[in-house]
């Protein structure tokens, strides 16, 4: 219950709500195709119940309240005893109140409680004759169920032959474990079927499906047992008189799977305080269970207590479901990102429309590997079922396929490593960059050598890969100590390209501090931030001497970013030391450290900042540059602006002072016009900067 319930205002809204709920429930029980997640359904039904409480004379006959399965299902095979639903509580207070009312009803304290997980599947009655499994029935409307005996043989945990030749009915829950669900999705995809939205839907659909070309395995958990008309008198008497916990032991001995075999076995408790302890334990284990639970069922354990309490038409009075928060929500898949891990594993990650689950906002979900996407037939724009419990990383269970509009788009798989651009090894389920652990090295060195950083010509990806593979570089600082012989020994490196490369590297030693900082790839800083840091401190020495407090004096660096940058620089110390030793320039031209009060934190003031022609102006550049500025990249333009004392920005806003609009300028030009911002051509701009332009 994370969102408050809606309030129904009038008859029409009430009738509408009833219609929606009945339709959803019908779809839910038939095969899991409900458009609502459970939380949404439950909120709707609570709103209906609230309205009905205020208008008891206008309750519609088809209302889902007070009925097993919301009145949405039927069956034609009568049950020997009704198969009921359970009443719900959502908190310790509600549970205590429920327990108190039960004890008032029976006129004595409940002798013992049984506490067990509420398995999130669907109810099934399994009839055994002389030890042989002969019939399977769904819950239906509670009084009669549907015969699903065709599923015999597909339910792990429900033996076709019991250990003893007894006649009785075992009741329990059918579900798919996480592993069974994955297999089901894969088989389903192979046969061209739509994916199931989640394990529960998969179980519901599978249990009722008769003529599938493939068989999907499910798991059965027994939670009850009762006599059939043909049961021997002895056994019938024994079953009727036994406590719930004894019945559970009995069916386990007969060979039926129960929660006794799991991390969350059924337990008994003497007091409601102990019950609460058990509930907490089960709830804490929820996230790591290989099957879904949506609550904890608490039952009066003794047959005598149960009998004294009796049952209503929808639920027994001697048992209650303590519901846990919904851990599944439907939201939209808006994208997939591909991230490269330390070992070169390329893992997809789902970007979601933010959704609140268990009190936290979920925006990303894990998709383990590309096969995970294929198996789920996921598409961008899909409505997806997202699962998050406890501390686990949220995951996408599957798309809610029947909500597709046709506008969904296939997910593009990368054909080159998104980090370093190398080939991808797709031979295993988990894709991997061919560079493996070197991927990060290749990516960071290529980045450092890039046009906007050190701008080392002739050092493309293939060369970097070659250098990394030969063990000649471990970071980009190693570039500056490469020898002619080392390079010549590489394949396809003749004397000319070797000398050219060495010259380009030598040249890179003269790059300004801002570009060296940028090449370091300090987390949280990009090109313009690197320039601001460089201009503020003027020398690498001053940058390194700055603590978090001093770092915050740089425009745009706040309390959060400052310590991260300082820590990163400490980590990068060995690389920086190597760069210094190799003679790489560590100063920012035009910036000089001042000896005034700021000197303590090593701050600098640049002449350009206070005197430049763009001093105090925020400048945006758009369109293609012409004239003297034609050859400059956008980054170089920004460098120029900042060098002239201005501030560069990539988007037009009220704070923009000047727009340099080149050929083909589009929306930024229009926006600047609207805002009445001064717009000039690249040529005019060049004139403005005449002194500084290269
Ligand atoms: N999404 C939708 O459109 C939609 C529609 C209808 C119902 N629902 C969901 O279904 C739930 C209501 O369903 P319900 O009435 O079938 O009942 P329920 O699931 O709330 O509780 C009763 C059921 O619990 C099960 N159960 C699990 N573990 C048990 C245990 N240890 N002992 C006894 N019983 C156990 C039994 O199958 C029993 O029938 C609601 O949570 C609702 O959100 C969703
Ligand atoms: Zn890579």
UniProtKB/TrEMBL annotation:
Native organism taxonomy: Bacteria, Bacillati, Actinomycetota, Actinomycetes, Kitasatosporales
Residues that, per the record, bind NAD(+): 38-42, 85-86, 116, 139, 173, 299, 323
Family: Belongs to the NAD-dependent DNA ligase family. LigA subfamily.
Manganese as UniProt keyword: yes
UniProt catalytic activity: NAD(+) + (deoxyribonucleotide)n-3'-hydroxyl + 5'-phospho-(deoxyribonucleotide)m = (deoxyribonucleotide)n+m + AMP + beta-nicotinamide D-nucleotide
Full protein name: DNA ligase
Database matches in InterPro entries: BRCT_dom (IPR001357), BRCT_dom_sf (IPR036420), DisA/LigA_HHH (IPR041663), DNA_ligase (IPR001679), DNA_ligase_AS (IPR018239), DNAligase_adenylation (IPR013839), DNAligase_N (IPR013840), NA-bd_OB-fold (IPR012340)
Obligatory cofactor(s): Mg(2+); Mn(2+)
Protein's UniProt keywords contain Manganese: yes
A Pfam family that the UniProt record links to this protein: BRCT
